[in-house]
């Protein structure tokens, strides 16, 4: 790495940004801002939609109170499955799967763990985001993390 690369004055391929998946990271060259917005919109619909649908169903369809209480876990299962379990198993939520994105850890480019998923996209102690969304086609095989 040259001195110009260290200060960000040149665009040589040897210059690596502060964390994996940041803007200008040559390891993940595909643009993803529009895809991320579309994925966030779908995930927002999956977050709010089941709650609204359940409330409309309970109000419009007059059913016994015991049946309406049995429907309460359905939105929690949908939201928890999309926001936590699916992200752990396939490394993306439903919206990110539709738009071809996956989530990686910002500090090392590996798949996020349970702690990273529960803390979300907030910056860690070193200022690096815990989770970063990148295009699935930019991820190399899991065993070759040193190439990233």
UniProtKB/TrEMBL annotation:
Which keywords describe this protein according to UniProt?
Membrane, Transmembrane, Transmembrane helix
Spans through the membrane: 40-61
Question: What's the protein name?
Answer: RDD domain-containing protein
Say which species the protein is native to: Nocardia jinanensis
């Amino acid at each position: 790495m040259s001195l110009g690369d260290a200060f960000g004055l040149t665009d040589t391929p040897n210059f690596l940004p502060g964390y994996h998946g940041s803007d200008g990271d040559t390891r993940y060259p595909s643009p993803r801002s529009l895809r991320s917005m579309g994925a966030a919109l779908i995930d927002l619909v999956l977050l709010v939609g089941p709650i609204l649908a359940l409330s409309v169903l309970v109000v419009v369809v007059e059913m016994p109170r015991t049946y309406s209480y049995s429907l309460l876990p359905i939105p929690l299962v949908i939201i928890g499955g999309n926001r936590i379990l699916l992200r752990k198993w396939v490394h993306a939520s439903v919206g990110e799967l539709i738009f071809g994105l996956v989530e990686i850890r910002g500090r090392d480019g590996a798949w996020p763990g349970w702690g990273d998923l529960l803390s979300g996209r907030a910056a860690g102690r070193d200022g690096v985001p815990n989770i970063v969304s990148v295009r699935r086609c930019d991820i190399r095989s899991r065993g070759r993390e040193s190439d990233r």
